[in-house]
Amino acid sequence: MAAVLCAAMLVGSGCARFDAAQSEPFTTEPKMAPGPTTTPPPPPPLPAKPFPKECKATGVMQGCLDSTSGLIMLPDSQSALVAERLTGAVKQVSVKAEPKVKVMIPVDSSGDGGLMDIVLSPTYGQDRLMYAYVSTPTDNRVIRIADGDVPKPILTGIPKGATGNTGSLAFTSKTTLLVQTGDAGDPALAADPGSLAGKVLRIEQPTTINQAPVTTALSGLGAGGSMCIDSSDGSLYVTDRTPSADRLQRITKDSKVSTVWTWPDRPGVAGCAALEGTVLVNLVNSKKTVAVRLAPDTGAVTGDPEVVRENVRGHAWALQLSPDGNVWGATVNRTTGDAEIFDDVVFPLFPQGGGFPRTNADNT
After folding, report:
1. Where does the record place the region Disordered (predicted)?
2. Which residue in 138, 241, 300, 327 could disulfide with 349, CB within 3.0 to 4.6 Å?
3. CA-CA distance, 143 to 135, in Å (whole number)?
4. Sequence ranges of the domains in the chain
């Protein structure tokens, strides 16, 4: 009877099926797009003559946003899709145009939930599909949005708590979607192989009907930070916040898991971006972005994280690399209590140009 009921729910609401197997690689033969070259450095990310926008924020792609969450850089490197966690809005923003709302997604933004991340299908040019990680009154879930259609559930029943709901999404191949889930404020759920909380989950061929069982790529996570992929070697980096420390972990293409760095002072790890063995990580509480550098031959950290942004633009969550090699962030100042008049913003991490830091000698 339970199997029949779940099958019916799958058709109607995307009932989750869960397989805790962790022995297989975290992708199915991923084909990573080559990352942008780091030499020569890209041009400055902002035009010399700013577009005259209604919002008068300067030195940014867009200001006057609500508190942000997910960020997607678009192919022209001059525009982006940015999610607002509390409102459920996904807005298209640009350095040369006024913002416009692409879609409004109904969400429950209580606690730290809401619209927590967005990602485009790897074949978006053909299928026009976007995926989002959202909170409802009863759970956290992954949904799919087609242009002009209502959101449809892909994976439901992810535990929701008063805290620990934040998470992220990332495609590692054309058919493999990874979902980072928070522990819903209960570390025991993260350790429970039967729970969807506190995991990196693998969804193969995401669909709204008869979805294949999800599998686990990583467990034991705290509140979700973010995931990012180093396109030079296919490594997946995961940030999360546990009761004892914030962490940056790495999963190689052959599913080897290692802890890259821990922060016992818990500065609030959030978005990350990775390229050629350097991982940038936003630290929300301390208003910093740091660069963690790994040796190319061993993957070992070469030294303490280097601060590349401090007290500029305030509390930043999302971090994304644009196709031209520049790095962009998005702030959450409105929900941290010290917003300025034109917050929140999508901003270039290195406004003078230079793009992703390539060596310890880079001037950023």
Report:
1. 26-50
2. 327
3. 10
4. 105-224, 225-363
Q: Which residues pair with 130 in a beta bridge?
A: 120, 145
pTM here is 0.88
Bridge pairing between strands 129-135 and 140-146:
antiparallel
Rg (CA), the chain: 19
In the structure encoding, which two tokens stand for residue 58, read together?
């300067």
One of 2.120.10.30, 1.10.150.650, 3.10.180.10, 2.102.30.10 is the CATH number of 225-363, namely: 2.120.10.30
Q: Take residue 114 and report the two structure tokens written for it.
A: 């809401």
Instruction: State the Cα–Cα distance between residues 327 and 148, nearest whole angstrom.
Output: 30
- Rounded CA gap, 245 and 236, in Å? 20
Residue 1 CB neighbours (<10 A): 5
Task: Report DSSP letters for 314-346, one per residue.
Answer: S-EEEEEE-TTS-EEEEE-HHHHT---TT-S-E
Q: Which helix (H) or strand (E) holds 307?
A: strand 306-310
Cα gap 32→30, rounded to integer Å = 6
The yes-or-no verdict on residue 356 having pLDDT over 90 is: no
Whether residue 35 is predicted with pLDDT greater than 90 in this model: the reply is no
**Strand ranges, E, within 213-276:** 215-219, 223-230, 235-241, 246-251, 257-263, 269-275
Lowest mean pLDDT among 9-13, 133-137, 168-172: 9-13
